[in-house]
Amino acid sequence: MSPLYPLKFEPIIKDPIWGGTKLRNLLNKTNATDKSGESWELSGVEGNISVVSNGYLAGNNLTELIEVYMGDLVGQKVFDKYGLVFPILIKFIDACDDLSIQVHPNDEVAAQRHDSFGKTEMWYVMQADENARLIAGFNSKVDKETYIKHLNNKTLPEILNAEIVKPGDVFFMPAGRIHAIGRGILLAEIQQTSNITYRVYDYERKDSQGNSRELHTELAVDVIDYDFYTEYKTTYKPVLNDPVNIARCPYFTTNVLEINQPVERDMFTLDTFIIYMCIEGEVEIMYNDKEIEPLKIGETILIPAEISFYTILPKGKSRLLEIYIESKKEGEADAD
After folding, report:
1. Among 199, 205, 213, 265, which one carries the catalytic annotation?
2. Closest by alpha carbon to 95, among 28, 170, 17?
3. Mind listing the domains of the chain with CATH numbers?
4. The model's pTM
5. For labelling, which of 5, 213, 292, 318 has a CA lying 20 to 30 Å from the CA of 228?
6. How far is CA 285 from the centre of its chain?
7. Residue 57: left if φ>0, alpha if ψ -120 to 50, beta else—which one?
């Protein structure tokens, strides 16, 4: 069996009614249009399985690779838990218009209703127009009855927490938290492999055929977390040339890595694949002592679990999101 190498995949471009031009103009997605809203960078979602674009494995899809390489690709514990399903969905999102207000079910509800994983996710804001804002949670504690009253009166935004955002802002969205990306925001999204979304409010919008988009009012009511939280935005302080954690949950761990000099990464104890999303600048990943794979802004790469030691070489100041599942090898202490 030939050795694995850092894998790139063909972006899967989606053109929803709220898409724009930033995927093409800022992230160099050549197959994006004037109305492209999502670039699925790495996907194991049925019907949208990512296909390798580089090296001798080009043309093979992600599921086929897991079937052949198993733990060598994703890590043994990850493979034991998820089998042939790649457990994380990676996207870039350009909201030229407001997205619908929505919520996602947790694993238990999603399994019962949809035979699916739930959807916990996070956002990293890459670019934001002036006064661009997003919705995360409620602006005070509400109950189900209050929520339904505002929903029926078409005044739901009045009780939601809206925040003006800037590049570098991070929001963690556990299943059950009501949320929406607002117009003018370009972000990276990391989430569980799930395409289950309950749309609860869509600003009375019509689609291109003049129809209102489907709402999932009844499904959503029992999965929403109605509590109020004093802080919805994640606070963190970047450290140059050192990974800084910005999200940690059972489904994924995400670090931001801002670098201007070579950084060695030894991930042996984690027994997991590593994903890098380049959100600023350009780097090279050197593995097996001398082999190089380039990565520039708007690109995503999957480092197989068997490549546990490598060096990231920046071309000037660069920034990456580093994503993996924490499942340490048997008998190993914490990497921290």
Report:
1. 199
2. 17
3. 12-234 (2.60.120.10), 244-324 (2.60.120.10)
4. 0.94
5. 213
6. 21
7. alpha
Residue whose C-alpha is closest to residue 180's, from 220, 235, 238? 220
Q: How far apart are CA 4 and CA 285, in angstroms?
A: 14
The verdict on whether 199 is a catalytic residue reads yes
**Rounded distance, CA 273 to CA 218, Å?**
38
Report the length, in residues, of the chain: 336
Q: Give all strands of the β-sheet with 291-296 in edge-to-edge order.
A: 263-266, 309-314, 282-287, 291-296
Give me 149's structure tokens: 């009253």
State yes or no: pLDDT of 253 exceeds 50. Answer: yes
Query: Are 90 and 277 spatial neighbours (Cβ–Cβ below 8 Å)?
Result: yes
Parallel/antiparallel/unpaired status of strands 253-259 and 318-324: antiparallel
Instruction: Look at residue 220 in the predicted model and tell me its pLDDT.
Output: 92
Give the C-alpha distances (Å, rounded to integers) separating 161 from 142, 154, 166: 12, 16, 16
